[in-house]
Amino acid sequence: MNTVLMDTILHDPNTNTPSLILDFNVIQQTYTRFLDAFPGGQIFYAMKANANPQVVQLVVDRQGGLEIASLAELERSLDAGATGEQIICSNPIKNPVFLQRMHQAGVYAMVVDSTYEVEKVAQYAPGSRVYVRLAVDNHGSVLPLAGKFGVSGDEALELFDLARDLGLQPIGLSFHVGSQCLSVNNWVNAVRTCGEVWREAEARGHEFFFLDIGGGFPAGHYHDESIPTIERIGALSMEAIEEFIPPVPNLMLVLEPGRGLVGESGRLLTTVVGKAKRGDAMWLYLDAGVFNGLMETYEGFPPVVSLLDEPTDYETERYTLAGPSCDSCDVIARNLLMPEINIGDKLVFFDAGAYTNEYAVAFNGFPIPSVIALNAEREVALA
Ligand SMILES: Cc1ncc(COP(=O)(O)O)c(C=O)c1O
Fold this sequence. Notes:
By secondary structure, the protein is of the alpha/beta class. The protein is built from eleven helices and 18 strands. 45% of the residues are buried. Bound molecules: pyridoxal-5'-phosphate. Pyridoxal-5'-phosphate binds next to α10.
């Protein structure tokens, strides 16, 4: 997956660390793969994964959509030239100022998953199109999102009726199978549940056309074949949609990939700045840690990492990788088998295009990774 240009930048002694190197060719190719794998589907990129203005611009330039969570993401979408029709909001919790601004901007539709939220949307964004987020099985995903959001089918039906009574336009359903979801059945089962709720809603007089199958598309099949591809998830999801969703002439099939669209485009280049033997463990301290780029490892996401220019044949050692800050929770991974590594060596984290800089803060004064954009279609200044 490393291109020649990526390799050149990784090996360039002038490339500072930590750096997040994004290859926009990979994002473009992945964008096309999604459209091919889900015929008729529309991408609403979950920009929380990587709100870099050039990434947002790439989507908008293709007439794609954006899934936003906040006022700042809305403004960035509009700055990139997105129209309201190209924006949806799947964050179930929205404050009044955000709702009013979305209403003013003509955001296409927004999610609700509680009576309080339905009332809030009716008050601050009257007449909006709304969809309900169903709680679905998140087992098999590396970072489950279940519990915090989503409702049962029965609750969804109550919310549709309430929304209609308050002058909103209920249009359909959404779900999220959990991030880096490795179980294709999660999508299939979730679509089946959507079909059941959809039929019951129709019986109550609702007319639906909107099915949002969320994010969760995993990165990394190219180095681990057990990880399902976009194509496989697409094939099985499309079959399930055909089988379970009542036929409507104008079905709007929405995909909200975050990691799946941008994850594989990025490499995080770091330098080993310290080494220590503590008990049986050999510790390596890097210039990026859980605060400044590798937060997902703290959430339990196993990093895919290697020494830049790993020898083909080597004696392994067992390492604990940690970040540079003084906080004891700043540990990236334990018990990693790697070749001998010394201070000054560089380590590369793969699939780092998503949730790296978005999560990063300069805690203790350690900088967040600088972004290097390869093959970007055009320069975009921050507004
Ligand atoms: C509502 C919603 N949609 C899409 C996404 C993107 O998920 P992923 O990066 O797993 O594709 C998220 C991530 O948290 C989300 O909350």
